[in-house]
Amino acid sequence: MQGRLRGKALSVEIETSCTHCGKEIHIRLDSDGAWSVKQKEAQILVFEPEVDWTTFTKPNIIDDF
Predict the structure, then answer these.
(1) Which residues pair with 21 in a beta bridge?
(2) How far apart are CA 1 and CA 33, in angstroms?
(3) What whole-number distance in Å separates Cα of residue 49 and Cα of residue 61?
C-alpha cells in the first residue's frame, strides 16, 4: 500500500513463524501486490483491501474500514 501511496516501487520481507505449528515463514511482498514465500508447503493468505484512491479522503486506510 505504501508504494502505491508514494508512487514508488517498494518491497518488504517478513520473517515470522506459524502460530499453529511454529515453523518459520519467510514472505516477500511488493507494492504491486505480488508475493512469494520461501517455504513451498506454506499456504499464505494475503489480504489487500480494495480502496478507491480517487475518492479516498480518510487520514489512513485503517480509518476507512
Answers:
(1) none
(2) 8
(3) 9
